[in-house]
Structure formats: C-alpha cells, structure tokens
Amino acid sequence: MEEEFSRDSWREKWNIQDWPSDKNEELQYYTPDNVTARNGYLVLSSKSERFKGRDYTSGAVTTEDLFEFTYGQLEIRAKLPSSKGVFPALWLVNSESEDWLPEIDVVENIGQEPNNLYFVVHWKDGKGVQKRDYLTYTGEEAFHEHFHTYGMIWDEDKISWTLDGQVVFETTAFSPDVPLFLYMNTAIGGIWPGDPEPGNVNEEFLIDYVRVYQDRGEE
User: Fold this and answer.
1) By three-state DSSP, how is residue 33 classified?
2) CA dist., res. 34 & res. 20, Å (int)
3) Which residue in 195, 204, 182, 186 sits closest to 70, CA to CA?
4) How many Å apart are CA 31 and CA 75, to the nearest integer?
5) Which residues are 75's β-sheet partners?
6) Which end of the chain is more exposed for a tag (fewer CB within 10 A), N or C?
7) Peptide bond just before 196 cis, omega within 30 deg
8) Element (H, E) at 45
C-alpha cells in the first residue's frame, strides 16, 4: 500500500470520520470538512468552533474494512500540530474488538510537550488485564517544526519503532497476530493532554505519505 495524497483517488482508500469522539473524554467532533488534500499533503485541521454540541472540530481518517494488515513495515512522513491540549496520533487498531485492542501507536504527541514522542503497544493478557509497553522519546527540537518520518517494523515476535529511518525503540513483550487498520487523527483535550486554551485551537496535521511494505519489501 502506498498513498501520496496527490490524486483525488485517495478518498476511495480512506474512511473520513464524521462523529463526536467518545474516547478518553475528548472534546472534538470529527467532521469531513476538516479533512482535505492540499499540495500533495493530507491535511487534518483542528479548530476552536462550536459544532453539534462540541467546542472543537478536528479531522480523522481510517482504513477500516478497506486496508488491514498483519506484520510488515510502515512509514508515515508527517508534520505534527502543536499547542496545549492538541493530541495527534498515527496508530493501528483492531476492528474486531469493542475495546479496539490490541493497538500499536506508531507515534503520539501532546502539544504542550513538543519535544516528546510516545511509542506504545497496548494489549490484554490471557486474564483480560490491559498491558502496555512504551517509550517516551525526547528530541533536541520540537517535532512540529519540521516533517519527520515515523515508522514501525512489525514482526511475529517483535515490534520496532523508527524515527527518520533509525530504530529508537523495540519490544518483544507483545506483538499482535491479528489484522489492524490505520487510524490518523488529531484529538483535542481529554484525560491525557488536558484542556486546550479556550478559543485558541487552529492547527493542521500534515501527512505527506503513507507506505506499507510486506513480504520482503513488496508493497
């Protein structure tokens, strides 16, 4: 799978979300109007605006039921948004479970920590207890200042996370063995990032390309 967002056909490969998020006490309503393509980038916009009972709107896309995979290598070149309470994420989710687990977070960030990235895998053990393994990565510069390539190598017994082509975290604690779909979004507020500054959200999450390789490098 390779997506460059340079042609209108990208809309046939992605589900554009249209719903008020009910995860983690988040504050945004995902609207199709906040998902566009511009100059070869997918643009997920986040705004302070009243819409259907919410104070913020944002953008999200998924490949659920369109493209799901198990094992392989994923690369996403993107420029993160910033500002307090804004929570961009590139992740893989299970469509068969009501709690969405297992889940691999290719990268997460919260706006008030512009130098920090989070690489995480979530799962439930045999007793139904939720587990996770993760790394908090701190860079020398704020990650919203430039584009970076966020990646993951997903093997049967190991997951490796990459940043600009370099492995920065590996785990053998758990590796999902079920198909997962891609989820790309910007959440606003909620349990982890906390509330944004009222009326102060006007952000863009820019995604240059998405590439998934399987079977020894074949897409």
Assistant:
1) helix
2) 13
3) 182
4) 26
5) 151, 211
6) C
7) no
8) strand 41-51
**Structure-token pair, residue 127:** 């007793």
Pairing of strands 54-58, 28-30: parallel
* Structure tokens that stand for 170 in this block: 């590996």
Quick check: helix, strand or coil at residue 99? coil
**Going residue by residue through the chain (219 aa), what tens digit of pLDDT does each one get?**
999 999 889 999 999 999 999 889 999 999 999 999 999 999 999 999 999 999 999 999 999 999 999 999 999 999 999 999 999 999 999 988 778 899 999 999 999 999 999 999 999 999 999 999 999 999 999 999 999 999 999 999 999 999 999 999 999 999 999 999 999 999 999 999 999 998 889 999 999 999 999 975 444
Q: Which residues contact 39 (CB under 8 A, 6 or more apart)?
A: none
Which among 80, 51, 25 is positioned nearest to 203, based on CA atoms?
80
